[in-house]
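A reminder before we start the practical. When you read a complex entry, don't treat the lines as separate problems. The point of joint prediction is that each chain is placed relative to the others, so the output describes one connected object in space. Small molecules and nucleic acid strands, if listed, are placed in the same frame. In the example below there are two entries. Take a minute to note the order of the lines before looking further.
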Amino acid sequence: MRPGSFGSGVAVVAMLAAGAALGASREANRADPIVGEETAVLTDAPNVPPPIHRNHATRVVVHLEVKEVEGQLADGVRYVFWTFGGRVPGKFIRIREGDEVEFHLDNHPDNKNPHNIDLHAVNGPGGGAAASLTAPGHSSVFSFKALNPGLFVYHCATAPVAMHVGNGMYGMILVEPKEGLSKVDHEYYLMQSDFYTQGKNGEKGLQPFSMEKVIDEKPEYIVFNGAVGSTTGDKALTAKVGDTVRLFVGDGGPNVVSSFHAIGQIFDTVYPEGAMSAPTHNVQTTTVPAGGAAIAEFRMSVPGTFILVDHSLERAFNRGALAQLKVTGPEDKLVYSGKQFDLVYQPEGAGARAATGERQVVLAPAARSKEERIKLGAEVFANNCQACHQQDGQGVPDAFPPLAGSDYLNGDKIRAIKTVTGGLEQPLTVNGKGFNGVMPAWTLSDEDIANVLTFVYSKWDNSGQEVTPQEVKLHRVTAGAKETKE
Amino acid sequence: MGAAAVFVVAILAVASPAAAAAGAERGGLVTIPPGLYTPFQRVKAANSGETEAQAPEAIAAFAMDRAPVTNAEYLGFVTAHPEWRKSWTKTLFADGRYLGRWPADLDFGHAEAGDRPVTDVSWFAARAYCKTRGLDLPTTAQWEYALADAGRDEARVRARSLEWFSRPNGAGPGAIGGPVNGYGVGNLIGLVWEWTEDFNAYAITAESRDPNGNDSAAVCGGAAAGIADASDYPAFMRASMRASLKANYTADMLGFRCAGGAP
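Here is the predicted structure of the whole assembly.
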């Protein structure tokens, strides 16, 4: 039996419930009388405001504050984000079709730049942008009636748009259909986007925006929820076996389209492009266009860590587009035996990666002691290894081998150097369990590899031995990155 | 305008700031030579509806402040003109944040603020200040022409602009001074946005992506059919900033300098 086929049985039930198109006509929504007024509850990702139980339209007041703030884009990498509400992505807004929204765009006086907002849920010039260009220290107000149900992206549309969006100015607004959405156990907000830093991926420090790279559409980072690792480790999404999960997935761009996929979990229902009219079922990967959205619903059948990726995989494993959903509960050996596994698809072979000639030039200060080596290695680990081998070094059963207490690792230091520098593409046994994935050849510098191995050896009851750059140089399989600084 | 003539004048202009730098004077007027300026926005052609580059505008020689007007200089102005003190000024002419960093009418706070550009001033106030010196605010064309600096150092100026947009505001602008461009003008970028006389005339439409916007041609978006150089992000940013303003607005990073006909 294939993984997820139990889930598709559930989907049949869901299909009966959600078979008809949801929502009313534009005319009906335009005429829907407004009763009462409320202030919108706004949430930061991955949280979503509570479902709407009203059976009438109302006036919803939204106060969205634009703030230019410095934050973390990846470990050791700082960036000045332009935000709707203080974080990337912007606040999630939830209204009902027929609602009249009184929108206040507040541009904080400490900001340097003018901003506006284009909500794709609006029918009108610029989606609100024409009415909301706002100088720092000022506030714009406009109103709109929600005529179309669906999940919509909003973003800043002030010139140059690609710079405002490239700095983080997007979020999502859900216009619930009158019928409401089906009840689920968890709703989460996940938004992919691309960032263009002057320094290469992994280069530390405060990184300025690169106009050249955004024009060439060559992002350094492609991430979920505004940062590498925003939704992994102890910040992973959670659910229990038997729970239904609804993901509101958006793509802020500015340039890159997402091939959104959950490794090891089939989507029972997808509302493609966030439209309520034609849900589809049993979907493996759904396209989320830049400036577009999708809703994915699924029931968890078995426990484990499910990895959410942009299945254009370079982005997931090398640029950051990777999140985790951790599911706890009893095994179901009928659904998933534990011997089969979802083989991670790596389009580039180990050799190919090393042969491209492209290097990640990481500013790698030389460690002067073993303690420094461990400290610097922790950052290398977070940027390169943690996505698969996990923060706690436990790996992912059947997919990525553990490093914690690993006999393969601790038994032979030179083998470890050869594995990291040369990659591995053959079955291996770690602590008695078989693995058959692909590890790419890492083109890191001798220093970085020495540091990360020393870090790994220092953790999780491992042997504690030190690896030096000289040893890496002696035993490495492929050439590494140059240590030169730009 | 012959390029040679511009060149000769430019040499003179370059020579003068070095002399000035020796003295205490970091402000003061600099003479900008005449030349041609092609506006950033394109215009709709009369018959076809297509956009086309605007005809280059002839810029006559003019004088411009070397640096933005400072708090210390502005203190002199409000001392002599009580109607522009923060407690006296009507919101019609300056919004509620006018001189927001000043603790009191005749007090700009810390002594080091004296050398920093005055900010939180409205267009009305800035203009009134320049009038007392027998000057005006520079036109947008004059300001942009001075920044363009006859094409010198264009890439670096753009890079520095982007860097400035991306730096959080923090404690406000630093002190004036430092390097000047080929014309001898300094601090056009990197400290504050600046008012121009006709800030709303070139205005980018509020909906900046519409190539057929009623009042202009300033567009953005990928195609950017209406822009002379779609990759000049800092020019978009300046146009957007000017478009977001009204004459009584003040902002924490918005200052000004004065300009006038050539002496």
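Discuss with your neighbour: The radius of gyration of chain B is 19 Å. What might explain this?
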